[in-house]
Specification:
single chain; globular; 1 helix; mainly beta; about 15% helix; first zn-finger domain of poly(adp-ribose) polymerase-1; four-stranded antiparallel β-sheet
Length: about 80
């Protein structure tokens, strides 16, 4: 889901979307909020972050809602 208005994360980085679903690329990812793993067969949260200085985007994967919320609290602080 794309956000109506990007959320500033500091510097030139903005949260532009959050989605729920399985890992689309079929790989196992590290959780961006903890030392956990995001397995390809589990539903999880993903956050899309855009750099204002260019067309770069990155997708971060989270093993739980708590990890995403903790990351947002630190990033948007």
């Amino acid at each position: 889901m794309d956000l109506r208005a990007p959320l500033g994360l500091g510097g030139d980085h903005y949260l532009t979307g959050v989605s729920v679903g399985p890992v689309e690329d079929g790989r196992v990812h590290d959780c961006a909020g903890c030392d956990g793993r995001v397995r390809r067969d589990r539903v999880h949260l993903s956050a899309t972050v855009r750099s204002d200085g260019g067309d770069r985007t990155a997708v971060y994967h989270y093993c739980s809602d708590d990890c995403l919320r903790a990351w947002l609290a630190v990033a948007a602080d």
